[in-house]
From TrEMBL:
Family: Belongs to the glycosyl hydrolase 47 family.
Transmembrane segments: 23-43
Role, per record: Involved in the maturation of Asn-linked oligosaccharides. Progressively trim alpha-1,2-linked mannose residues from Man(9)GlcNAc(2) to produce Man(5)GlcNAc(2).
PANTHER family: MANNOSYL-OLIGOSACCHARIDE 1,2-ALPHA-MANNOSIDASE IC, MANNOSYL-OLIGOSACCHARIDE ALPHA-1,2-MANNOSIDASE-RELATED
Name of the protein described by the UniProt record: alpha-1,2-Mannosidase
InterPro entries: 6hp_glycosidase-like_sf (IPR012341), Glyco_hydro_47 (IPR001382), Glycosyl_Hydrolase_47 (IPR050749), Seven-hairpin_glycosidases (IPR036026)
Region (Disordered): 126-146
Disulphides: C470-C502
Amino acid sequence: MNKIGYLPGVSASGMGLRLSQKFVFLLFLSGLVTLCFGALFFLPDSVRLKRIFLSKTESQPVTVGSDNDLRDHLKKGAKDMEHLRGITSAKGETSTKLKSLSRKPSITNEAKADEKVVGGEALEDLTMSRSKTESSSKDEKVTSSSNQRQINNLSLTLLQATCFQFLKGCCCELGGFAISLVTCILNPLTISVFQMMKFAWDNYKSFAWGKNELRPLTKNGHIGNMFGGLRGASIVDSLDTLYIMGLIDEYNDAKEWVETSLDLNSNGEASLFEVNIRYVGGLLSAYYLTGEEMFKRKVLELGEKLLPAFNTPTGIPRGVINLGSGTSWSWGWASAGSSILAEFGTLHLEFVHLSELSNNPIYTEKVMNIRRLLNKIEKPHGLYPNFLSPVSGNWVQHHVSIGGLGDSFYEYLIKSYLMSDKTDEEAKNMYYSALEAIEANLVQKSPGGLTYMAEWRGGILDHKMGHLACFSGGMVGIGADDGAPEKRQHFLDLAAEITHTCHESYTTKLGPEAFRFDGGAEATATRLSDRYYILRPEVIESYMYMWRLTHDPKYREWGWEAVEALEQHCRVEAGFSGIRDVYAQTVSHDNMQQSFFLSETLKYLYLLFSDDDLLPLEDWVFNTEAHPLPVIRKSCLHGEGGTHDKTTSE
Ligand code: DMJ
């Protein structure tokens, strides 16, 4: 029966509407039709209409014959896109430029032309120059083709999202339609990230569905060995991003796959850490955002399978677990059978929520036991080394890093405090003591005035910072409010300085895996082996937090630079790919679309360009894979209220 039939006084047929109701409805409807189709007719080139409304075979082939034609296209595109390029212009102008982006984008050139640009002529454009001055004119050129593609994409997405929604024709969807239309028109920045997500997802779905990650050059799936027998890492990692962006059909496909095909009875060597941050984190946040019980069932089933990893003399879990047999062991490469700080120290947020959802304290007990041991063990200069024996409970090596092997342990200390509604004093104290030790021993200023966090090897400083360590700008920022009040500004300054340094490492708008500050280097990778970029999120993550904390427009400006660079250098025919050398003249792709690109990089970009009330930081804490988990309100810790009162997600 038609839903409308249930409304009192209104018959199932529109004929039963009163005249005034009919009039309002028709007015609304015709407004939408006019807007939708008017948008098409006001667009500059009608060939595009055919491309949108006709199938591929019916549409007129667009030929881009000579290089001159192509250049004409590029020029035209560049002109139409001036307002978008303006975003990366002089600082003072940025906020005006950002505002100017709120005007409706217009379609410029042909998608076919874009393809040609990407595939052929643009090879020259898709190069990266190491020096900033060398690269500037090239960047201009690259920007025009990318911008042209961007605006086509924006317009297409706008038209698809709005017209398709409309043509579905359901009255109750009109509200959603209006909202997406407003969002599209008012915020082309978020819609371009939305479009990137859709592109990444669609290609994953076409070529790698059910596999862990997409190989976008060879157009096939990658399974890898991090998740044991678990599959669909990109699906689980994407659930919340799709949902937040309003990609509801895509979210529904993902949900259905999780329900019918995510097999948790797998055998194989899984990383406890990776399964926790991606699968447990992804399912938890999908549950909290949508309220779908199926996600809760799945995550509790998975959580139980992780528990045997903690069966060690100290309760410090080993890094690898067979989810089928429950046997666990340490990574072969970790010295003397040790466990890794960033791995066993990055379970707290998810495990506390597993206890919340299951009403079983065991998960919280496991992570509190880790916390206790770390709190009481002696620490060299107050620092936490990266390797610890799960047998003796002693440090195995004195290598300290805020980047790889250490990073998210520090992140989870402050986030545990925030997620506990600021009641977890132990986490807070451990965080600020650790930060004090980091500042005293690791934080350095380069000759060029850049602040960075060096690594520490038994007392000797290694003047290098990893891309992974760039999350720390955001971390120091979100913790600024809760330390000593007189240090608030100091922490905000430190956060801003680190984020600035990380932005500096993005010489070519994308940054290397590690960069150095010795031998004359100022945030540049000096080793060939450090020059790759695998679509990592950390720098953008810090932009997002710093934007939320300061509203300094430079963070959005920097985020937009990253969007452009991702489009120019990482977008390939069937998805996004990492690149092998951020300084190389000719781009070489690594053929991998990492699942964290969908989960983190694109989500942080989307949040960076969205209003602060989309997942407000007072109510949500992001796990290290950017899966939002709700703050657990104080009242529930004292047993007040049911499950539904416990979090802020409802
Ligand atoms: C992600 O899986 C997580 O952010 C993790 O904490 C570190 N590495 C990747 C992204 O770079």
